[in-house]
Write a structure and sequence with these properties.
This protein folds into 2 domains: 30 residues, no CATH class; 125 residues, Beta Barrel (OB fold (Dihydrolipoamide Acetyltransferase, E2P)), CATH 2.40.50.870. It has 2 helices and 8 strands. Strands 2-4-5-8-7 form a 5-stranded mixed β-barrel. Strands 3-6 form a two-stranded antiparallel sheet. The longest helix has 29 residues.
Length: 192
């Protein structure tokens, strides 16, 4: 005997969404909330470089040129350390090539630029305090291809200039300077 089967009809409620839709909505809102933060973190980490200001040279007098410790340039009385630099000395400095006041494009040949201990990052520019900046002047007739934020070694005679340490005008010059590109791997070799 064939019995009729009764199929029960299911009703759809107007306010009832399927669980996968709710999950997708939750994940979408979470992604919208966290995605900008993730982009910022990636952008900052990809454009950041080591800050050289607080590093101490392992052997400052290993060659004829004194290896610069950036903190020795601070002009505040409490910041000066014993055994710092003396103006007129031959110095070797590691820093980041940055623009001076004049507008310079990457790839342009220049005979001077500013050296900083920190290049900043995509969201936070480098600090420009006068006593944390060195104006690098190459010998007359010499030039170098400018590349902002490039880590470089610079050798020259250090000269102190008058001025306010809080102004964005360099208070030091390296005259008759030589320049060579550097690599981040060199930092632990020369500094601690």
């Amino acid at each position: 005997m064939n019995r009729p089967t009764h199929l029960r009809r299911t009703r759809h409620r107007a306010g009832n969404t399927r669980p996968p839709d709710a999950l997708r909505l939750f994940l979408g809102l979470t992604a919208l909330t966290w995605l900008p933060s993730l982009v910022v973190i990636v952008l900052v980490s990809r454009t950041s470089a080591p800050d050289l200001f607080d590093l101490s040279p392992k052997d400052a007098h290993s060659s004829a040129d004194v290896l610069l410790a950036w903190y020795d340039l601070e002009r505040a009385h409490h910041a000066l350390k014993e055994g710092g630099f003396s103006p007129g000395a031959r110095m070797r400095a590691l820093g980041y090539m940055m623009r001076s006041e004049e507008q310079v494009r990457d790839g342009q040949m220049v005979s001077q630029f500013v050296l900083l201990p920190d290049k900043g990052n995509a969201l936070h520019p480098a600090h420009r305090f006068g006593d944390r900046m060195i104006e690098v002047q190459l010998p007359a007739g010499n030039s170098v291809r400018f590349s902002e934020g490039t880590l470089v070694w610079v050798w020259g005679t250090l000269k102190a200039l008058p001025g306010n340490p809080n102004d964005p005008i360099p208070l030091y010059q390296l005259r008759e300077a030589r320049i060579a590109h550097a690599d981040e791997a060199e930092i632990p070799r020369y500094f601690r």
